[in-house]
Design goal:
CATH superfamily: YVTN repeat-like/Quinoprotein amine dehydrogenase
Oligomer: single chain
CATH topology: Methylamine Dehydrogenase, Chain H
InterPro entries: Cycloisomerase_2, Haem_d1_sf, Lactonase_7-beta_prop, WD40/YVTN_repeat-like_dom_sf
Order of helices and strands: HEEEEEEEEEEEEEEEEEEEEEEEEEEEE
GO molecular function: 6-phosphogluconolactonase activity
Strand order of the largest sheet: 3-2-1-28
Family: Belongs to the cycloisomerase 2 family.
Protein name: 6-phosphogluconolactonase
Structural class: mainly beta
Radius of gyration: 20 Å
Distance between the termini: 37 Å
Number of strands: 28
Number of domains: 1
Pfam family, one: Lactonase
Length: 367
Amino acid sequence: MMNFSKRMQMLLCSAFTFSLSMWAGDGLTMVVGTYTDTGSTGLYSFMFNQQTGETMLLDSLSMTNPSYLTFAHRPHLLYVVSETNDSHAAVCTVSLNETTGRMRLLNRQLTGGEDPCFVETNGRMVLTANYSGGTMSVFPVLRNGLIGACRYRFAGHANAHAAAPQNTAHVHAARFAPNGYVYATDFSADQLLGFKPTSSASLKPLGVAGRLPQGEAPRHMAFSPNRRYVYVMSELGGAVTVFKWKGYHLERLQTIASDSVGGCGGADLHLSPDGRYLYASNRLKADGISIFKVDAGTGKLRKVGYQSTELHPRNFALTPNGRYLLCACRDGNCIQVFARDAETGLLAIKQTIRLRKPVCIRFKTRN
């Protein structure tokens, strides 16, 4: 006869499987990174229903400051930074069971630069942007999908005549662009650096690809679905700058204010999946998200709204169907779930997920 404990395990497993089946077709795997200095465990996995906005917590993994993450090109792997301001700063490979949400740390590699705050991959290499280290680190992806030891580091530039923080070098993001190049935000020098990937999983520096107005401090980038435009969010200037690709080079078309109150805390930006609207988060004063309409012909922006949020909206993500925008409010200790009007682009609060110090949200369609 089966003992009571075993029967309970089977019943709980059956109930969990039934709950998951209720989400079939609409369920997304959502992984959230946090800062861990005030009691957060580290990395959290959820299931999110992109039709109803319902959320189910699945698992947590103890890590130090997993402040940014990306999904690997092979199934069931994540690459996650451990953002520390010392020699222990690292990027990690994490396994993810998409059915149960269970996560497990597989390996870690030192970045050689303090405060890695961004990570991205093209399947052959992994890049981290190391803010305080002022560098971009390049790692090979091994045959088993794990991250290999750092092979290259490329330095950003400082403006010796600027006030802090631009008087020392900072690199805030590094992206593989649709045109085949890599671009990094050279925060302190108000410019974007360009690189060309090579067949040996390395990068060839190409120099300055585009320049921003002085004092803007570029932070994050977004690429238009039609592969014609690049949008750059500035932290200190609090503006979005629109570039048009001309080969490898970027031609500046427009700089438009997102932060209109001088908070000097511009954070993140993302386009809606259809490319019709762009959203940009602002911190430190009048915290919230600017909403811009994108001109389909020119790529330029027109501000059409502003959605207030809880404190410090550092990062946010839109669901693949464009129905919801989820904002990680670090100092509000929550993720705000906003329903999105596809025609007007405007947002309306639907629910709040309470979580300590959330700073990064990533979605993946469930298999």
